[in-house]
Amino acid sequence: MRAMRTITFLFTLGTLATAITHTTHAHAFGGSADHLGHQGNFVVSNRAALGFDQGLSYHGTSLYLGPELDYFVIEHLSIGGAIVVAWNDQSGANLGVVPQVGYDVVLSPTWSLWPRLAVTVLSGSPAHGSVELSAPFLVHPVEHFFFGFGPAVSTDFLGDNKITHIYGSFLIGGYFDS
């Protein structure tokens, strides 16, 4: 688990360094929200979530961390995925993969909304799978960098306990122009 925290920390530092070094011209604040969803852009981000879970036979706390890579195949439509570490107070830590699809909606020169649909498959005994819908609102303070927070909900389709999670999801990242 310590190794994954180190990898996550280094990944976040790399994302920030990329955003800073690839800024060609910065606005006073923002003004680059419409650049994220351009066709051909690669997005590197790091998702983190803390949740309070409630099910028929389970309630508890969960933590979810994962570096992500997304690609905009056409204007505003992204496909990608993540490698994640998930922890909850019932089953401990598990590793997994998360393929996802999203659509970037520009709200203003500084704000955008990036709703995404993802399928999570985690290792463990038994294995665990869920479908997630998240909708983070993103702030673009400078070109090539964003951060955001938004609601998310996921429901399990694989595993012993079928749990629905409602939580806030934090996202920080940067992107490379095509």
Short description:
The protein has 178 residues and is mainly beta. It is built from one helix and eleven strands; from the N terminus they run H-E-E-E-E-E-E-E-E-E-E-E. The N terminus is likely disordered.
Query: CATH topology, anyone?
Result: Porin
CATH class, named Mainly Beta
Name the structural class: mainly beta
State which percent range the strand residues make up. Answer: over 45%
Q: What's the number of helices?
A: 1
Query: Could you say which overall geometry the principal axes of the C-alpha atoms support?
Result: elongated
Number of strands: 11
- SSE ordering: HEEEEEEEEEEE
Number of domains: 1
Fraction of residues in H or I helices:
10-25%
Given as residue ranges, the uncertain stretches (5+ residues, pLDDT < 50) are: 1-27
Largest sheet, if any?
Answer: 8 strands, antiparallel, barrel
CATH architecture: Beta Barrel
What average pLDDT do the residues reach?
82
Q: Tell me the Rg in angstroms.
A: 16 Å
CA(first)-CA(last) distance: 35 Å
Largest beta sheet: strand ordering: 1-2-3-4-7-8-10-11
Q: How would you portray this structure in words?
A:
Strand 2 (59-74) and strand 3 form a beta hairpin. By secondary structure, the chain is mainly β. The chain has one domain: Porin (Beta Barrel), CATH 2.40.160.20. Mean pLDDT is 82; it is low at 1-27. An 8-stranded antiparallel barrel has the order 1-2-3-4-7-8-10-11. 34% of the residues are buried. The protein starts with a helix and ends with a strand. The chain has one helix spanning 2-21, and strands at residues 42-54, 59-74, 77-88, 92-103, 105-106, 111-113, 116-122, 128-134, 137-142, 145-158, 164-176.
